[in-house]
Amino acid sequence: MITHRKIAWASILTVAALLVWWEVRADEQPARPLPDWVRSLITKHFPDSEFVRGHREGDEEDQRYEVKLKKDGRDVSADVTADAGVVAIDEELRHDQVPEKVMKSLRRAFPKAEIKHAEKNTDIRVTYQLEVTSDGRKREVTLSPRGKILEIEKRD
Length: 156
Hints:
- By secondary structure, the protein is of the alpha+beta class.
- The protein contains three helices and eight strands, in the order ααββββαββββ.
């Protein structure tokens, strides 16, 4: 007699097998070449790095790419957009490259911690600020690269 527990386990194993199959199939798909503008930006911003791989993220309208690089034997990842250029950088660090103030804070909070991995994350937020006059009033308008108004500040 099949119990509910056996059915549940069979379902879990089936889903796990499908997920593994899906990952293997994704790795088999040929990578589409990166657009020239992405390669140009990466070459400009990371001249001493070796290109490993890159792929598009998001939907067809989203012009965002993740690029993996190697620099001095360490992993570097950069997110690049058509609107703003390089918007995020993740750099693998050796333990001796972590700033002293960061290490002191870590040791104070976790005195017995063993560092397994260190990484420097840089998020670059690009905005445009425009000082305008409208109906005799001065304003400072902050917009995203996609044209979304983020903030309006009165300057009167």
